[in-house]
């Protein structure tokens, strides 16, 4: 597993990308934003994505990703980190915090997946990818997905291993037991869930009741850190120690 690292003091910040993405292009502007203190920052790519290895025998489940991420963070000497994780990466981060508590002191999820969902053909993203069988996706399905997701998302999705991308999408659709939402709500650490303004997550009040800060970011869509990096950085500044 590989990452782009910005030097600085601990506690470290760990940035985790979404499905078919890679961390450096999504987070570099925010991680280096002048509003944020210069803590050590790791813009990390999960196995099968971006600049990381693509092992063919890896399960690519959310749990396997979380355990591999934990191993990488331990090797990097990271503990008690602030983890900022987007979309699918937020699901992995919730599992990471539940299974490897010593590694995560603060969890900030960015429009993250919290619940399982049904695979739906011809949809862009995870739902559409999970609607294929693995062999059908690897053979031809990836081309249909490429045409649906558009050039921006494909610019990073094309770096992903096709089997790893499909297996991750299937695991994301299936979710975890307990669900990612339940894992998040049970965590004893500071937690926040950031969403595009006007698009609060399902059961937002339930999240708040469990101690999760639920915050809308103006003038943004799903890729909040790209759509409004200034507001995203200001929100991180208020949330991070």
From TrEMBL:
Pfam families: Abhydrolase_1
Gene Ontology CC: membrane
Keyword Nuclease in annotation: no
Domain of life: Bacteria
Protein's UniProt name: Alpha/beta hydrolase
InterPro entries the record matches: AB_hydrolase_1, AB_hydrolase_fold, AB_hydrolase_sf
Domain AB hydrolase-1: start-end pairs: 14-190
GO molecular function term, any single one: hydrolase activity
Lineage: Bacteria, Bacillati, Actinomycetota, Actinomycetes, Streptosporangiales
Keywords (A to Z) from UniProt: Hydrolase
